[in-house]
């Protein structure tokens, strides 16, 4: 295995050990930046899921009406 692969493996092991030690100590957020990053990440995930939900609602609700012929420019004749 190359040196970079060993370094990557060691870094990954260090990060996993850090996460496990935080879980054991029940101190997931050690600084304000951790909290901010957590909030920004889950806000982003929430917005993406909301947009996907809106696309699905539009697709399933509006596509049913697309099959029926509609006249958007109705002209009234007397």
TrEMBL record:
Entry GO CC: membrane
InterPro entries hit by this protein: SIM_Modulators, SMIM5/18/22
UniProt cross-references to Pfam families, sorted A to Z: SMIM5_18_22 (PF15831)
Keyword Zinc-finger: no
TM spans (from-to): 35-57
Subcellular locations according to the entry: Membrane
Keyword Transmembrane helix appears in the UniProt entry: yes
Keywords: Membrane, Transmembrane, Transmembrane helix
Membrane topology type: Single-pass membrane protein
PANTHER family (alphabetical): CLCA DOMAIN-CONTAINING PROTEIN, SMALL INTEGRAL MEMBRANE PROTEIN 22
Protein name: Small integral membrane protein 22
């Amino acid at each position: 295995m190359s040196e970079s692969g060993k370094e990557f493996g060691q870094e990954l092991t260090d990060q996993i050990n850090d996460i496990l030690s935080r879980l054991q100590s029940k101190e997931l957020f050690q600084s304000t930046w951790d909290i901010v990053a957590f909030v920004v990440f889950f806000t982003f995930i929430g917005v993406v899921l909301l947009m996907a939900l809106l696309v699905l609602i539009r697709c399933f609700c509006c596509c049913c009406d697309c099959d029926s012929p509609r006249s958007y420019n109705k002209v009234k004749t007397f």
